[in-house]
Amino acid sequence: MKIVDAHNHPDWCGHDLTKFLHNMDENGISQCWLMPWECAPTDYSSYYQSKIPAEVLGSTTGPIPFTRCLSYVERCPERFILGCCPDPRRPGACDMLVAAHDIYGARVCGELKVRTMFDDPDVIRLCRTAGELGMPVTVHLDYDCQKTRREPWSEWFGGTIDALERLLQACPETRILGHAPGFWIHISGDDLWQTAKYPAADAPVIPGGRVSELLRKYPNLYGDMSGGSGRLALSRDPEHARRFITEFQDRLLFARDYFDDGLQVFLDSLSLPEPIREKIYFRNAGKLIAQ
Ligand SMILES: [Zn+2]
């Protein structure tokens, strides 16, 4: 079966293009959405220095500049779908997105990962522009969980699930993919989002989670299941995962944001019907960029 990885990055976690392609082949992945991460230097912690070569590259646009995505796509156009997401706070961000779409064929707007609320006017403007271009937007939500005086600075992106809801309301024509710890922690209707980035592996899934609620309420919301957060949200309760994937089978996407096979192994363990497997592994991703 064809597999599309709907979320990954160039030069990420020790992978150059050769290693990247080798890893895709090893995991049976035919195509990958390749996304930059453009934000201010003050938006992210030093944790990422070992995973990305931004400073070595001399990037002025953020940890993973668009030009690196373009380089991969130009060298291997049949394996990658080009993503672009200028920092929305930059003057001209919308024009840059239009140019990337028109000149270089960018088809996905992502990854949107900035230390700004999702319902900030600049973010809304960029997401509306993406919607007009038919580009889905992949957003990274992370809460500010830091509570100690000793380390007052902590990393957060996008704000809250409520800010995401307001973005969904403000951009009904834009298809938005929810992603990352702050999004997937809301698979469950508990208060873990206030204290934990990642829940315990066996934390029960309590009914009433915001993810399901928002997916039911907003047809423009999709789920990017990548990263530890997506896999963990599902594997907390495999029975719930089966029901969740069945209900939202038209709006969930297989994705990795890394180079492992953890999500693949878990999804395959669920014995999902073949038509659902096809949707989450490649058909939904294909539909989203078909415009
Ligand atoms: Zn990512």
Kindly describe this structure:
This protein is α/β, with parallel strands linked by helices and 291 residues long. The chain has one domain (4-288): Metal-dependent hydrolases (TIM Barrel), CATH 3.20.20.140. 38% of the residues lie in helices and 10% in strands. The chain has helices at 17-26, 54-57, 66-75, 93-104, 121-132, 161-170, 181-184, 210-217, 227-235, 238-247, 262-269, 274-288, and strands at 4-8, 31-34, 80-82, 109-112, 137-140, 176-179, 221-224, 252-253. The strands form two sheets. Strands 4-5-6-7-8 form a five-stranded parallel β-sheet. The longest helix is centred in the last third of the chain and has 15 residues, at 274-288. The mean pLDDT is 95. The chain binds zinc ion (ZN). Zinc ion (ZN) binds at residues 7, 9, 111, 257.
Ligands in the model, by name, code or SMILES, are:
zinc ion
Give the CATH H-level superfamily: Metal-dependent hydrolases
The fraction of residues assigned to DSSP E strands is 5-15%
Report the uncertain regions.
Answer: none
Q: Domains counted in the coordinates: how many?
A: 1
Give the strand order, joined by hyphens, for the main sheet.
4-5-6-7-8
How many H/I helices? 12
